[in-house]
Every structure is written in C-alpha cells, then in structure tokens.
Amino acid sequence: MLARINPSGTHIHKGKLKVRVDIYPDATSKTFAMHHVDKYDREPTEEERADKNLPAKIGTHKEDNPCLCHFIVIDEDMTRTQLSNLVMVTFNKTAVDELDDALSKNDRSKVSQVMRPKKGIAGLVKQGNIEDVNARFKDLEVTVGVN
Amino acid sequence: MALIDIGAAAIDRDSNAADGYTTISLDNYANDTGSLDTFEIWALSSLAKCKVGTFSGSGTSYDDRDYETIGSVSSGSKQTFSGLDCDVETGDFIGAYWTDGAIEKASAGGAGYYKVSGDKFGDGANTYSLSEDRVNSLYGTGATGVTNYPISTSSDITVSATVARKTAYTRAMSAGLTAAITVAKSFGRKVAISTGLTAAVTVDRALTYTRAMSAGLTAAITVAKSFGRKVAISTGLTVSATVDRALTYTRVIAANLVIAVNVARKRARSVSTTAGLTVSTTISIAKAFVRSAISNLASTVTVNREATYSRASTSDLTVSVIVAKKRNRTIIASPGLVVSATISRTMAWGKAITAGLTSVVSVSRMWNKAITTVAGLIISTTVSRIAAYTKTLSPELVISVSVTKTFAVLGRIISAVLKATHLHKTELKAMHLYTATLEATHLYRATLEAK
After folding, report:
1. Domain-by-domain residue ranges, chain B?
2. What is the pLDDT of residues B353-367, one digit of tens each?
3. Where are the domains of chain A?
4. What is the complex's ipTM, to 2 decimals?
5. Chain A residue with minimal CA distance to B3?
6. Is the pTM of this model over 0.90?
7. Contact check, Cβ <8 Å, A112/B37
8. What separation in angstroms does the CA of A143 have from each of A47, A93, A96, A140?
9. Residues of B in contact with A121 (CB under 8 A)
10. Which residues pair with B25 in a beta bridge?
11. CB–CB of A116 and B69 under 8 A?
12. Where is pLDDT greater, at A41 or B371?
C-alpha cells in the first residue's frame, strides 16, 4: 500500500497539529476493488447534480480512492524523514493487513481498534503555521505494509 | 468502554446535497458520551475543505460541540477518516460543511436534516431550517471514556525529582576517612577534617554531635535514657535514721530515784485513804476527782484554766478572784450531815477599798431544789435565775433583789400561783427603805365535784 500526505487535512485541533495520511490499496489488496472507482471526467454542475440522471451522462474514468484517511498528531517541527518513519511504523505490515481485512468487511469496530492507538503523540502547537507544515511534507509518499 | 455511533450510514444514495451549507443530520443521534474517532462519508462528487462535527440543541437552534477539519473527500466510494478526537454527548447530532462537491443523500425515508448557508462551525448557536425526510451519507463512530494523554517524545525533556526529609549529613575533607553512623529518629551530624579518623555513634532518640580535629582519634558515644543505681556494702558505713512521732518511755524503779513523767492530756486520779493525809495534785487540762471517805480528810483540788487576779492597793488588803469552768461537787453521806451542792459557773468578784470592808458578788444559774415527803410539810421549790446585786455604800447597807416563780400545792385543793416578781429594793440612806413590786399572777381553780 501507499501512504500519501494529504495537505487538505492538515489542521489544529485541541491544540494539537494533525496531518492526514491517505492509504491507497494495492491492486492485490482486498479493498482495491472497492476504491478503484469511476470518476467523472469533470465535476457535475449544480444543475446536473440536481437531476440524478444527468451526471450519468458525464463521461467517467477509473481512479483509485484511498481506503483510509488517517490523522496523526505530530510536532510542528517534525522533519520529513521523521514523518516518513512514523508513517511506516504506524502502518506496518500487521496493521495494514488488519485494516485491509476490516475495511473490506466494513468492520468499523475493527478499524477503530487498529487505528485508535495510532493517533500519534506530540506536544501542544506553538507556532501553528500550517502552510509551513504542508510545504515540508508536500508530495510525501511512503510505501507501507511491508516488513 | 462502550461504542458510540451517530448519523446515517455512508452509502450510495439516490440524491445528493449541495455544498455551501452547514447541515445537521437528525438520523441516529449519539447514543452515549465520549469521543468520535472515525467518520465515514460517501460523496457524489469530491468534497473540498470538508468539516465534520457534532451539534447540540433543539428546535431550530443548534450549536456545534466539536469538529474536525478533514479536508477533501474523494467521491465514488465510502471514505473512512480515522484518528480523530471529536467530542460527543448523548443526544448530539452529526453535521458537516464543505465548500465544493456533493454528498450522497436520500430524499425520503430519513428523519431530515437542518441546514443553514455558510460555515457555522465554531460560530456558536445558529438558526437552521428543516429539510424533512432527507438523510445524508454521513456517519461517525467512537467510544465512551476515551482519554488521550499527551505524550511528547521530543528532546529537551527534563525529569526532576526531589526527595525531602533527608537528615544525614556527612562531610569529609581528607582521604582514608571512614565514617559509620547509626541513627534512630535522630539528627546526626559528623564533621571530620583529619585522616585516619574512625567514628562510631549510636544514638537512641538523641542529638549527637561528633567533631574530631586530630588524626587517629576514635570517638564512641552511647546515649540512652538510663537509670543509675548505687549500692555500697563495705564497712565504715554510717547509718543514720531519724524517726518522728516517737514514744519515749522512761521508768526508774531504784531507791532515791526521781520519776518524771510528762503526759499531755492525761487523766489524773488521786485517792487518799489515810487520815491527816494531804494530797495535792496539779493537773493541766485534766479532770480531777477527789474522794474522801474518812472524816478529817481534807482534799484540795485546783483546776487550771483559771485566771487568777490579785490586786492589793492597800497594805494588808487581799483580793482573790477565781474564774473557772469548774465543777465542784461535795457529797457527805453520813447522818447529821448537811448536804449542800452548789453547781455554778460562778464569777466571784470581791473588791475592798476600805480596810475591813468585804464585798461579795455571786452570779449563778443555780437550781435549788428541796423536797420533803412527810405529811404536813410544805413543799417549796424555788427555781431561779437570780441576779443578785448588793451594793453597800455605807456600812451595814443592804440591797437585795429577788425574782421568784413559785408553784404551791396545798391539801386536796390544788392551787397554783405563778408569779414573776421583780423586787427591787434600794436604800439610799440608812434605815430608809424603797420597795417596788411588779407582779403578774395567774390563778387557776378547778373543782371536779362536791366534797
């Protein structure tokens, strides 16, 4: 599986800086088919969305959606390498296998059981410069679920 | 830790909800209080800048309790967002806001949702309008009693621990110094400034202070609450005993000896049975008893607690005053004797200011009783508290006062005359008589029958 930092989810909540890690399943993953979906070639307009039949007329193509978007609390001065290592540790092979299985079965309880302890640990935010954080982790991708 | 869920299932539905509104789904309000860690969304078209949170309120007014900014949401499949920490309480509703895109919704079959234009997260209470029967594909799960403790793994962490109540103090300024201290609930202090010093201190609840300033010095101190006792059994000892309240008794039985016995508060008794014998006893605070059974026996008893006063202002004048609480009793049992008993607390006072003048004053509480049991006798009883006062200003001048209460019984006729008479006589000159009589008489006569 591939982990990508999604800057749209970077935010501060309760004084903690959180970054969003999207997990994309491999083609061999159990959840691959669920998230290998048709996408509109363009976003439907408001009028098209208002009529259920209209969007269907928009052309589509295949895209992969993340099977899980996970938020991790980090220190705002964490380096790119540190975050890569943290992501690899968080989504080790065991965790990824369990997630793939639970998500494919729509087992929410299991998903929470696996991911709740992996929220990350960090101190309170001092600067809170989200743009700086996102720039630091731009296009960061980490292959996860490997030994 | 119980599971919490809120909202409707995130599934592909037959309609969609447009962007730019804050929506609050009424389906499946929160069943417990805790924290939501996972949200699920199914979007028709990708959502931008999406926020998801919890709302509380009633009617058309709602306020967000907590929310998380999850960012973009991909369309076409259920998107799961984990690792969140959104506060929720029982009865809360789930809500969302996004700036672009559309979320899957059903136009019927739901509890409806409230919506209002714009982002109302963190904006306090707002008024919403109801869209009936509709339901959004927005769902959350979590658990009760979830507590997240912040833990920092960054550097510059300082751990400091201070343990107080430390009372041992050791100071050594030279090598080779050995110190051993055993202290029980005490404050020990030791200062050694020389080498080769060994100090051993045993203290039992004591304050010990040892200081050595010379080499090779050994100090050992033991302090205790001890009791000292000393017993000497060698010779040459002196034993001295003084005992109060002692009884001293001396008895001498040899000839020509003098026996002297002093006894306080003693009862002395003297009996003389020989004629011509004179017994003289002096008793201090004593009861004296004299009994004479033979004629010509003279007995003299003198009892102290007397005040004797003698004053002589003229030659050959003798004044004698005897004041006593004295009980004198004389009994003569032979025929022809005259029995006279005088019981008195008598004050005798005599004063003579002229040669050959005699003055006698008798004051008494005296009971005189005479009873004759022969027929024809007159029984006369005189009971008196008599104050007799006689003053003679001239030779042969006599003044007498008598007060009499008299009871008379005559024959078979009983008559009683009670008199209280005060007789006062004063003769101012020789052969001149003044008499005054005050009398209160009650006469009672009772005749029971004729003859």
Report:
1. 3-143, 262-304, 305-365, 368-451
2. 444 444 343 434 433
3. 2-31+67-143, 37-64
4. 0.96
5. A109
6. no
7. yes
8. 40, 10, 11, 10
9. 150-153
10. B94, B113
11. no
12. A41
